[in-house]
Design brief:
Helix content is about 80%, strand content about 0%. The protein starts with a helix and ends with a helix.
């Protein structure tokens, strides 16, 4: 904490804007297929959200060890249900827009809930993590089948991009994003990133 407070003084707002601009404009890496860029962003956002939720749970309730497996399990359960939901629905381009819109609305709502002045009930953490997992699993199924006619091996690439995004989140969130942006800034970053990927999809698919 002292190290990052030295690098980024509390009154230095320029770093927050720089990180937000970097996230919105440069995170979807150019020259990559759109489904890989969206999948990378999904892994980054969903795993960062999970990390933030666990940190905030610890701060709010003072314990985490007993609840960690349950909370992570709810995230994975939502991921599985989202995958099944994606597999049952017909795959259309419009479904990607719906999935992106759902993620934007979800992270806006989650930001409002987690930043409420009163403490968030324990059940909300489980609901939010399950919801984040569901949206990730839903869109992953859509992205995995997008462009299969052109690249039959695309499922592995999409899965790899998602995992790389999650790995980036596990490093960036505790070591860089939280010290620079704080909880509120990180939560506000997630809808911005999803809006960026929505615009990317709109440009590519419309």
């Amino acid at each position: 904490t002292r190290f990052f407070s030295f690098l980024f003084p509390a009154g230095s707002q320029k770093w927050r804007w720089l990180v937000l601009i970097f996230g919105v404009w440069f995170l979807p890496v150019p020259r990559l297929p759109v489904n890989l860029r969206v999948s990378f962003t999904n892994g980054l956002v969903s795993f960062s959200f999970e990390v933030l939720a666990l940190f905030l749970f610890q701060k709010t309730f003072g314990f985490l060890y007993l609840a960690m497996s349950f909370l992570v399990g709810l995230f994975m359960a939502g991921l599985g249900v989202g995958g099944f939901f994606s597999g049952r629905k017909p795959k259309r381009r419009e479904d990607l827009f719906w999935a992106e819109t759902g993620q934007i609305l979800f992270y806006v709502l989650a930001t409002g809930v987690l930043l409420l002045p009163r403490s968030v009930p324990i059940v909300f953490f489980g609901i939010l993590l399950a919801g984040s997992g569901f949206l990730l699993g839903w869109e992953f199924g859509l992205l995995a089948t997008y462009g299969m006619d052109r690249n039959p091996g695309g499922i592995g690439l999409v899965y790899g991009a998602d995992l790389v995004g999650a790995l980036a989140a596990s490093v960036l969130t505790p070591l860089f994003l939280l010290p620079v942006l704080s909880f509120s800034g990180c939560l506000g970053l997630f809808p911005c990133l999803k809006i960026a990927t929505f615009l990317l999809l709109w440009h590519q698919l419309s």
